[in-house]
Design a protein that fits this description.
About 50% of the residues lie in helices and about 10% in strands. With about 230 residues, the protein is mainly alpha-helical. It has two domains: about 5-190, Intergrase catalytic core (hpI Integrase, Chain A, Orthogonal Bundle), CATH 1.10.443.10; about 195-225. A hairpin with a 5-residue loop joins strand 2 and strand 3 (about 70-75). Helix 2 (about 20-35) packs across helix 7 and helix 7 (about 150-165) crosses helix 9. The radius of gyration is 21 Å and the shape is elongated. The two termini are about 30 Å apart.
Amino acid sequence: MTLASAEKLMWGPDFSTFEGVRDGAMIALLVGCGLRVTGIVRLNEGDIVQDEVGGKVRMIIKVKEKGDKERRLPIPPEADLLLRLYLEHPDLKDIPRALPNGDQVLFVTTRNRTVPAHEYNGDRRRFNRRSVLQMIKRYGERAGIPEDQLHPHAIRHLYGTELIEGDVNLLNAQKLMGHADPKSTEIYTHTAMRMLTKEVDRANPLAKMRTPVSQLLKQLKGQASK
């Protein structure tokens, strides 16, 4: 997925509705934290904790995905705000989502024709993998996003690529992505070419000297900017 497509996806939900606020928060966590689908559907409210980082209170998410290993991720400010709007939404208070251990399902569905009304509570309110995929496809198709980008893993791939292009070192990227094998993270270095291209164009020796084609390149850039 491209950044432009992810931005379109973020603007897809109707934030005047409960479902829109919920979907916006889910998309923000997928984009901003690079979660796998299994990670986001398994989240409970108790997996969202607060911690003081650099003198500021930040939301931290506890994620369990492959191998049931838990990792903690700082939630970006944009996703933090959308998540708070969802948690404080008045409609959420009326939805029975309590679990036997006293925790509560984080992201709840509002309709499920396969479950009797008197049983539609707790864990049965939880999103499944298919529902998340359908949600992304629905908003993506409306926004005209190419079909091959309309998958949660495409969003995760964007997250990994942007980490590397943002000059995050491989060790930290590995932790953020939840990769057990560093080689899995190294894949993103092969796709993160925008930053490398920009640096080459700016700093290579030819860029710092007058060459036989320097004037032509200058003219071409001028035409491209018009």
